[in-house]
Amino acid sequence: MNMCIHGTISTGVETLRARVEYNMARGAGEFCSEWKLSDFGNNEFVWIGNITDMDSMGAFLSTDEEVQWDKDNGCIYKIYMMSEMS
Prior knowledge:
Blueprint: E1 2-9, H1 13-25, E2 32-39, E3 44-51, H2 54-61, H3 64-72, E4 75-82
Antiparallel strand pairs: 1-3, 1-4, 2-3
């Protein structure tokens, strides 16, 4: 299943890119097989990832550490689920 996250980050999209790379190395790569992060300017971003275990992804994003990181970096987003249309 594909997940799309659209939002803004006050500390800049490159800060978010570094965090995603850090998170992939510390375990998120076990349930996210590939991802892309696009910078839309003015601190707006879209992240798309192929998620193989949605429960693990949800648990990962809601840890105290991740919630605090979002607050500290002014990261505000909405999450969307995507499926392929045939």
